[in-house]
Amino acid sequence: MMNNLREAAPSPPAVHADALTVRRGTGRHPRTVLDTLTFTVPRGRITGLLGPSGCGKSTLMRAVVGTQAHVTGTLDVLGHPAGHPRLRSRIGYVTQAPSVYDDLTVRQNLDYFAAVLDPGRTATDRRRAAVERAIADVDLTTHATALAGRLSGGQRSRVSLAVALLGTPELLVLDEPTVGLDPVLRRDLWNLFHDITRARGATILVSSHVMDEAERCHDLLLMREGRILAQDTPEALRTRTRSATVEEGFLRLVDEAGAHTEEIQR
Fold first, then answer.
1. Mind spelling out the 3-state secondary structure of 27-91?
2. Is residue 196 within 8 Å of residue 229, measured between CB atoms?
3. What are phi and psi of 27, to 5 degrees?
4. For residues 40 and 196, is the Cβ–Cβ distance under 8 A?
5. Those residues with Cβ within 8 angstroms of residue 199's Cβ, 6 or more apart along the chain or in another chain
6. Which residue in 224, 222, 225 sits closest to 236, CA to CA?
7. Taking the alpha carbons of 62, 229, 15, 93 in that order, is the dihedral positive or negative?
8. Residue-level pLDDT at 204
9. What pLDDT, on the 0 to 100 scale, is given for residue 8?
10. What angle, rounded to 10 degrees, do the helices at 153-165 and 106-117 form?
11. pTM for this entry
C-alpha cells in the first residue's frame, strides 16, 4: 500500500547568508565592512560569533535583525528576508549598550515593552506572566522595583536581556551581552542561554571577543576583518588546527590567512 502522505518539509535554518556584503561610505571607494559572507546558523543551538573588536560582528548582527543599511547578497532569517515585518515578534535583540529607560523601574521597563509586543486589554494577564518570567530568568526578582538608572552596569544589561526574552522569541541575537560582567554572572548567563535553547528550542546568535566563551557554544563563526575565517564546532576547530583551545586555533587560522595573503601579493 502506497503511502500518500508527504513528508513535512524541513524547517529552514535560523539564518542563512550567501555573498552577504555591507559597504559604508559613498563615492568611488566605499569601505567594505562585511565581505561576501556565506554561512548558516542552525536552529535550536547556540552559535558564537567571535572575533576581535572592529571585525564586523555588530554590523552582521544589525543585518540579521534588519536594521543595517547598504546590505547586498542573500540574508534569510527564519525563512524570510532579514527585516521582514513577520520577524518582528520572532526575534529578540540585545545591543551592546543597555536599551532601557533609566527613570523607570525594572518591572515598569518590562511592562512597557511587553505592551508594545502584545497590545490590547485582553492580553493583560499574558503580559504580566511574561514580565515576571523574564525578570526571574535574568535573576532580577529582588530588584524588580529598583530604578534602572540606579542599577549596576551588569544589572542594566540583564534588564535589556529580559526585554529581549519577552514573547519567547525563536531567535535571540545578543551583541556581547557579557562584556563588563563578573565571572559568576557570566557563568550564570551562559547557563541561562543553554536553558533557553534546551527548554524552549530557541536559537541564539551571540557575539563576543572573549575566546574562552567560544567553548560554551555549540557552533562557531570566527570573523576577522569583515570575513568568516571558519564555521565549525569548538571540538572540530581544535582538532582541525591541532590546538588545545579555540583561541589557539583561531590564532593559527589568522596566521595561515596572513601567510596566504602575503603569498598572493608576491
1. CCCCEEEEEEEEEEECCCCEEEEECCCCCCHHHHHHHHHCCCCCEEEEEEECCEECCCHHHCCCE
2. no
3. 95, -160
4. no
5. none
6. 222
7. negative
8. 97
9. 56
10. 20
11. 0.88
Grid look-up 528576508 returns: 81
Nearest to 177 by CA among 150, 136, 208: 208
The β-bridge partners of 39 are 17
Q: Is 5 exposed, middle or buried (0-12, 13-18, 19+ CB in 10 A)?
A: exposed
Those residues with Cβ within 8 angstroms of residue 90's Cβ, 6 or more apart along the chain or in another chain: 78, 169, 170, 171
> What one-letter code names the amino acid at 192?
L
CA 226 to chain centre: 17
Residue tagged 543599511 (cell numbers): 69
Decide: 79 and 21 in contact? Cβ < 8 Å: no
Identity (one letter) of the amino acid at 123? A
Q: What is the pLDDT of residue 259?
A: 60
Helix ranges, the chain (H): 57-65, 106-117, 124-137, 153-165, 183-200, 234-241, 246-265
pLDDT tens per residue, range 98-137: 789 999 999 999 999 999 888 877 788 899 999 999 999 8
pLDDT at 265: 47
- Is 59 or 12 the better-scoring residue by pLDDT? 59
Q: How many residues does the chain have?
A: 266
Residue entry with cell 551583541: 175
